[in-house]
Write a structure and sequence with these properties.
alpha/beta; nine-stranded mixed beta sheet; six-stranded mixed beta sheet; glycogen metabolism; transferase; Nucleotide-diphossugar_trans; ATP-binding; EC 2.7.7.27
Length: about 425
């Protein structure tokens, strides 16, 4: 693992492999396990950390790694994602040979064909990638939370002479069945790639652990180009990297694993590499609340590896009233700009931009997305509140799971998702 400092980037930039690479971010998926949070937006566009969107993490990793040519493939309900990219990532300058292209599914191959898989998303844009005139392509998922220096992975790829280098995580072997799992030899060559196996192969370093794919791949572009063309002509293929492309290369002996621990970015506060797939309500809630810890497992304040995003112009957060039983306060919480905590108590929670919390309300262990209005005397515990929701006065959620489940979406671990449609449905039933 690497600990960045002011000396980390002293290497001659003209010899950085990232200068010869482009990042292709696959950001077209809905993320249905996030339930109603993705009814209006693709998973990569979901808010995270009080300011950012999920897609800002792979984009920031690419930019901080020195990659200045980036393409983002979009498909499902892409408007909010495209708007965010236009507002927050418009600082690339063509005169400096910097590019960020947004590539919506646009029936470029056939008027009846959208992106049919992760590999097909790149195949349909081969001519655009050709225009970048790059040696290497870094294929990224657009929906994970982590900090990683792709330059180190590029170096590993070149040193091994690999056809593909696959980013991998170490997880407990009894949890690996939920992932694509790699069996590797002592030289990190991948000898088998299994999609969600019942009996995952062990890591050569530890029999109780397995290596699982992060959905990050490095290729020589000339090689990947040929593979994609051949795959597109195969009627039996699902045109997916994990199901088709990577297993094929593994059989040919050209696939190598790159461990995340070798290139993760840690500021000195983190105690171990941090990577999260925030693809469920539970994991989304937990990853956001991780940031409220005294020493968070992911350092969001690391200036040497910033998470770039759209910086909305907002007034500061405001806390008002200081009367007995009516004190505006936040304890071990993150409060974004343009929030007003008016005689309410917020604890162990994360509030996004423009939230209003009115007098006598109480929030505990809750994640509140932008522009939410929380009425007087409401009590929310272990909740995720979607954006633009109005919480009625006196509403209590998180204390009676059976009652909550009548109106809201409650996970098996007791996290409650609240959307405006759910609130409206509850109000209509009570009025009726």
């Amino acid at each position: 693992m690497i600990h960045l400092s002011s000396t980390t980037t002293q290497r001659d930039s003209t010899h950085r492999l990232s200068n010869q690479a482009m990042a292709f971010v696959l950001a077209g998926g809905r993320g249905s396990r996030l339930e109603e949070l993705t009814d209006r937006r693709a998973k990569p566009a979901v808010h995270f950390g009080g300011k950012a969107r999920i897609i800002d993490f792979p984009l920031s990793n690419a930019y901080n790694s020195g990659i200045r040519k980036i393409a983002v493939a979009t498909q499902y309900k892409a408007h909010s994602l495209i708007r965010h990219l236009q507002r927050g990532w418009s600082f690339f300058r063509a005169e400096r040979n910097e590019y960020l292209d947004i590539l919506p599914a646009s029936q470029r191959v056939s008027e009846h064909q959208w992106y049919m898989g992760t590999a097909d998303a790149i195949y349909q844009n081969i001519d655009i990638v050709d225009d970048y005139q790059v040696e290497y392509i870094v294929v990224l998922a657009g929906d994970h939370i982590y900090k990683m220096d792709y330059e180190i992975m590029l170096q590993h790829h070149v040193e091994k002479g690999a056809d593909v280098t696959v980013g991998c995580l170490t997880v407990a072997r009894d949890e690996a069945s939920a992932f694509g799992v790699m069996a590797v030899d002592e030289n990190s060559q991948i000898v088998d790639f299994l999609e969600k196996p019942d009996v995952p192969p062990a890591s050569p370093d530890n029999p109780d652990e397995s290596l699982v794919s992060m959905g990050i791949y490095v290729f020589d572009w000339s090689y990947l180009r040929e593979i994609l063309i051949a795959d597109a002509e195969n009627p039996e293929s699902s045109h997916d990297f994990g199901h088709d492309i990577i297993p094929l290369i593994v059989k040919d002996g050209g696939a190598y694993a790159h461990r995340f621990s070798d290139s993760c970015v840690m500021s000195g506060l983190e105690t171990e590499p941090y990577w999260r797939d925030v693809g469920t309500i539970d994991s989304f809630w937990q990853a956001n609340l991780d940031l409220t810890s005294m020493i968070p497992p992911l350092d969001f304040y690391d200036r040497s590896w910033p998470i770039w995003t759209y910086s909305e112009l907002t007034p500061p957060a405001k806390f008002v009233h200081n009367q007995e039983g009516r004190v505006g306060q936040a304890i071990q919480s993150l409060i974004a700009g343009d929030c007003i905590i008016s005689g309410a108590t917020v604890s162990n929670s994360l509030l996004y931009t423009g939230t209003r919390v009115h007098s006598y309300a109480q929030l505990d262990q809750s994640v509140v997305l932008p522009k939410v209005d929380i009425g007087r005397s409401a009590r929310l515990t272990r909740c995720v509140v979607d954006s633009d929701v109005t919480i009625p006065e006196g509403l209590v959620v998180g204390e009676d799971p059976e009652e909550d489940a009548k109106w809201f979406s409650v996970t098996a671990t007791g996290i409650t998702l609240i959307t405006q449609k759910m609130i409206d449905r509850r109000s209509a039933a009570q009025e009726g």
